[in-house]
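Re: the 55-residue chain
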Amino acid sequence: MTVDTIVVGRNSYSSLAQHWQQAEHSSDSLERAIAKRMNDIPKVMISRSDMEPNP
């Protein structure tokens, strides 16, 4: 199975983005590999409010 887009809500996006960006620098090689893949997949954020997502 392949994943080409991740769809998340605003609150989930904030938590996930922060975690996976930091995880790319983990001492655990598996966590680094997963984080790189998660960060490389395009994301769609769904929200009722106007906002600019963090990179």
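The chain has a mean pLDDT of 87.
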